Amino acid sequence: MKNEWPLWEVFIRGQHGMNHRHVGSLHAPDAKMAIKNARDVYTRRNEGQSIWVVEANHISASSPGEKGPLFDPSNSKTYRHPTFFDIPDEAGTM
Amino acid sequence: MDPLFQFLLRMGDNTLVLGHRVSEWCGHAPVLEEDIALANTALDLIGQTQMWLGLAGEVEGKGRSADDIAFLRDVWDFRNLLLLELPNGDFGQTLMRQFLFDAWHSVQLGHLINSSDPRVAEIAQKAAKEVAYQVERSADTVVGLGDGTAESHVRMQAALDYLWPYVGEMFQGDTVDLAMKEQGIAPDPASLRDDFDALAGRVLAQATLTIPQDNYTQQGGKTGARHTEHLGHILCQMQWLQRAYPGANW
């Protein structure tokens, strides 16, 4: 499909100090238009402070078939979760 | 007739009629992303209309709301530019019209933010932010399509040739404009031409399009003297509910 615009993945940062989060994807002819489209599609309700776009084919993904070896070993290792600490309110978002 | 009221009708009718035209694309645009972008543009324009016509009602002092002015006037009382009531044509023609208007609108608002009337300045300030984005978007699309494929180039040149005779009306002045200029409320329309030409010339050159040399100008929209036959059809769509069920609301 040579006439199709490439797919872009969109990341939005909602507030200063927060991470960019993946919000979805869209089509656009180039990066500049992808940012404009992202502005119109994903920030209409004042969700954004900053937009990142990346062409979807630049993203490498883990394969669902490798799920077992990749993720199973970390199952049931509760000692890896730092959930036993009380976080003071002044510390803010972690 | 109060020139300030007339001036506010012109500003508000421009955004009302173009906003309605652009909203006609909702659900029909060539791709989802453009559909949403056009709907956003239409909503921005209708939002600006509420402010301009709201102030017009206030200035008139007869208790008319922005809705009353938008939905209960007939063709001869509208003061929008002819350019904006023309049918959408194809996507390229819609975006060409959008760019030509955005270019003028951005220059006009750039002056209005310094208006001697603080209410006008305040509305202009709010609208200018939206229009700064709109003109960037429509300019990019005009360049993308003009300097695109052979097919898109031909369509964009045809759109420019068709719409160009309607551009001149944006810069024509009359007694209303003269009064606005004397009171420091709004600039002389002719004085916007150089900035418009610079912006439009740069974008259209980048789009590899040729501006027609013929400077014949269609006129009669902003004075209300002679609208095209298309305006009545827009109003029929836009107003029928209020006309059929007066005062209906939800």
Q: Could you walk me through the main structural features you see in this protein, from its secondary elements to its overall organization?
A:
The complex is a heterodimer of chains A (94) and B (250). Chain A has a single domain (7-91), classed as Phenylacetic acid degradation B (Ubiquitin-like (UB roll), Roll). Chain A is an alpha+beta fold and 94 residues long. Chain A starts with 6 loop residues before the first strand and ends in a 23-residue tail after the last helix. In chain A, a hairpin with a 6-residue loop joins β1 (7-13) and β2 (20-27). In chain A, strands 2-1-3 form a three-stranded antiparallel sheet, covered by helices on one side. Helices cover 18% and strands 22% of the residues of chain A. In chain B, 65% of the residues lie in helices and 0% in strands. Chain B has helices at 3-23, 32-60, 66-71, 82-85, 91-112, 118-146, 150-163, 175-182, 193-206, 230-244. Chain A binds chain B through residues 5, 26-29, 32-33, 36-37, 39-41, 44, and chain B through 31-33, 36-37, 40, 133, 136-137, 140, 144.
